[in-house]
Every structure is written in C-alpha cells, then in structure tokens.
Write a structure and sequence with these properties.
Strand order of the largest sheet: 3-2-1-4-5-6-9
Number of helices: 9
Shape: globular
Strand content: 15-25%
Distance between the termini: 44 Å
Helix content: 40-55%
Number of strands: 9
Structural class: alpha/beta
Bound molecules: nicotinamide-adenine-dinucleotide
Radius of gyration: 18 Å
Largest sheet: 7 strands, parallel
C-alpha cells in the first residue's frame, strides 16, 4: 500500500512508535491521520503537530482494551475522513514477571495486547470488505516470534498477536485485505514508563546489554536499539512491499529460523543467555 491519499488510524499514537508512525504517514501524504490513545493530551499534541505541518489529523481518546471505545474510534474516524484505509493497531503494554503475575495483570495485558486487535478487526473489516480493500498493521514484537526474558505475559500475548495477524492474513488476504505484523526488538520509547517496567531485548536474539535511555533502564539487544522514527520508516517500507512480517531488526528472521530448526538447541541458548543476564544483575 502506498499511504499517500489514504486515511489511517494509529492506536498508541501519542508516544513512541505510534507517534512516529502518525508523523511518517502524514509526511508521506496520508489524506487524514487519526491519532488514538488512552493519553488524551498526548494524542491531541501529535494531531496538532501534524496539522501545523499542513496535513489533516484528529485526536481520539480511546482505551483499546474496551470494545465500545474501539467502535467509537472507528465511527469518529469515518465521520472525520469518510473511511479507514489503514488501521495500525499498535498500542501495547508490558508487565514484568512470570506465572506469579496476578490474574488481574494477565487479564489487563491480554486485553491490551491481544483482544484490542480482535475489537479492531471486528470494527473495521466489514467496511473494508464491502469496499474490497483495506489494510491492518498489528504491532506485536520480536517477543511474539521468539520470547521475552523476564516477562511471561509479554511473550505469551505477543505470540497471540502474531497468531491473530497470521489468521487474519490467511482468512481475508484473498478479499483485498492486507495484513502486516510489526515485530521489532528494542526501541527507545516510553513503553516501560507507560506500563510499569521496560524489558525490550532478551527476545531470543543476541545477548542484551544494559543501557539507560532517559529514566528507563533497558536490557537492549546487541543488535541495536532503534529509534521509533526508524521503526516508522520500516513500517512505511513494509506497507509499500505489502510484506506480512515487518522486521526493523532483520536479524530476527535468522533467530526465528534457528528456533524453528532446532527448538531444544534454541531453548538451551536462551537458558544460557538468561543465566548470563542474572549474573550481571
Ligand atoms: N519499545 C520497544 O522496545 C518495543 C519492541 C517491540 C514491540 N513494541 C511494541 O510497540 C508498541 C508501541 O509501544 P512503544 O514502544 O511505542 O511504547 P510507548 O509506551 O512509547 O507507546 C505506547 C502508547 O500506547 C498507549 N496505550 C497503552 N495502553 C493503551 C490502551 N489500553 N489504549 C490506548 N492506548 C494505549 C500509551 O498511552 C502510549 O502512548 C507496543 O505494542 C509495544 O509492545 C515495543
């Protein structure tokens, strides 16, 4: 998809990857950008920035874990711009910990990282199918293809997000619906601040190192920590190529192949990596 003259909605648009995606879509001539976030002030600020550049944008406050909010967001976008060509379902959170994480936190991360994409697909697919075209981008993570050391809820929910994106691509790909799944490793964003604690890196690729970005201590992958604007460029490129997997860190494809080729070997490598990290901390 060439994003020029397209109407796009981006959730989690107030910060990080979502914010840069909104700006990249606008600068490439999107007909309208809907900046959606639970952070009302943040989404208004991003929409104002876009309008100050002479492009069209509206801000919508929505908690994507609530289906009525997602339905309201879709209605508001259609009211403002007539249709939705591209929906980037990007909002996400991280919760640190393993099976001891309380049920309420598991439910919350499931609702934000998985169920929100179900609500989005339910709300936008009918219109897209009727028009015979439309595009969904689901932001998962390299953790959804590999794992997330230190966070079972993140690993599990991001795997589920990848599974849903694949299922949508298979089910609707022949009816004009494009689907891409964005799976970065470490990116310098506010993810930790906005969702308790940040744990990018350690996704199953090369060994992480500790790095401080702002006030957040990151376990950043040796493959490099990308900035959100770099990730946004990867998304625009992935959309142009209509590629399912968008991998801003290309190494992730190799790690995923190694994991599939010999799961026991990969698990052993991940245990060694985890032990090395535990020694360092
Ligand atoms: N930062 C990384 O290293 C990294 C790596 C891989 C994947 N991701 C994924 O990228 C996506 C964007 O995260 P980011 O890194 O830009 O973090 P971020 O915290 O900077 O941005 C996330 C935005 O989502 C919003 N949000 C959170 N819960 C919401 C909800 N229920 N409804 C609406 N908005 C909500 C937040 O307010 C915030 O503005 C997430 O899905 C995250 O899991 C991030």
């Amino acid at each position: 998809m060439d994003v020029a003259n397209r109407v796009a909605v981006v959730t989690g648009g107030a910060s990080g990857i979502g914010r840069e995606l909104c700006l990249a879509l606008a600068s490439r001539g999107a007909a309208g950008v809907v900046v959606a976030d639970v952070d009302a002030q943040g989404s208004v600020a991003v929409a104002e920035t876009i309008r100050s550049l002479g492009q069209k944008a509206v801000a919508v406050t929505a908690d994507v874990s609530r289906e009525p909010d997602v339905q309201g967001l879709v209605s508001r976008a259609e009211e403002a711009f007539g249709r939705i060509d591209l929906f980037c379902s990007n909002a996400g959170i991280i919760v640190a910990g393993g099976v001891e994480v309380p049920d309420a936190a598991w439910s919350r991360i499931w609702a934000v990282n998985v169920q929100s994409h179900v609500y989005v697909a339910r709300a936008v697919l009918p219109g897209m199918l009727a028009r015979g075209e439309g595009y969904l981008v689901i932001t998962a993570s390299a953790a959804g293809l590999l794992t997330q050391l230190g966070s079972a809820p993140y690993a599990v929910t991001k795997h589920a997000a990848v599974a849903l994106a694949e299922w949508l691509a298979i089910s609707y790909g022949d009816q004009g619906i494009g689907v891409s799944c964005l799976c970065p490793q470490a990116v310098t964003t506010n993810l930790g601040a906005t969702s308790q604690r940040e744990l990018p890196g350690g996704t199953g690729g090369s060994p992480p190192r500790t790095e401080t970005v702002g006030s957040v201590s990151l376990q950043a992958a040796l493959d490099g920590v990308l900035t959100p604007d770099q990730v946004a460029v990867s998304v625009i490129d992935g959309l142009a190529a209509e590629r399912f997997l968008i991998l801003p860190h290309p190494e992730v494809a190799t790690y995923e192949r190694r994991r599939a080729e010999d799961r026991d070997r990969w698990l052993g490598g991940m245990r060694r990596l985890q032990a090395r990290l535990a020694e360092k901390s």
